[in-house]
Every structure is written in structure tokens, then in C-alpha cells.
Amino acid sequence: MSCGPQMPAMPLSMVKAGETVRVSRVKGNEDMKHHLKDLGFVEGSEIHVVSSSGANIIVTVLGARFGIDSKVAMHIMTVG
């Protein structure tokens, strides 16, 4: 049983620049899940959003910086 209310998961595409979140799950087909897993987007991974500008999001995960299309970022569910 958890202690207190839990934040609902939201897509990475909705996280603001400067925020750090954790991956709660990855949605999509198997190819999408596998690709994102290879990049380090796995449950529990910490993601820092460097910048977010409409169609593209720049994030840091596992010490590497990636540019992600917002459509792909919608498959990465996060919690604060």
C-alpha cells in the first residue's frame, strides 16, 4: 500500500523544460518499445527534459542527450 496520493502518469511530450521525471511505462508496438528500451527509456529511468519546443523534445537519459519527436514522446509515460 502506498503512502499518500500518487501523481497520474503523463506522456513525456507534456513535461516542461527543466523538469525531471521517471518512466512509468512505455506504450506502442513491439518495435517502438524495443527501440525506446535500447535508448534507455525503461521503467524507473530518470529523464531530464532539457528543452521542449512543439514538435521536438531534447532529453537526458542515462547520461546521454537525445532529441525525440513529440509523437514518439507520447509513447513514454512518466511520473514526477
UniProtKB/TrEMBL annotation:
GO terms for molecular function: transition metal ion binding. Transmembrane segments: none annotated. The keyword Calcium does not apply. InterPro entries: Fe-transptr_FeoA-like, FeoA-like, FeoA_core_dom, Transcriptional_repressor_C. Keywords: Iron. It holds the Pfam family FeoA. The keyword Amino-acid biosynthesis does not apply. Residues 10-79 form the Ferrous iron transporter FeoA-like domain. This is FeoA domain. It comes from Collinsella aerofaciens. The lineage of its organism: Bacteria, Bacillati, Actinomycetota, Coriobacteriia, Coriobacteriales.
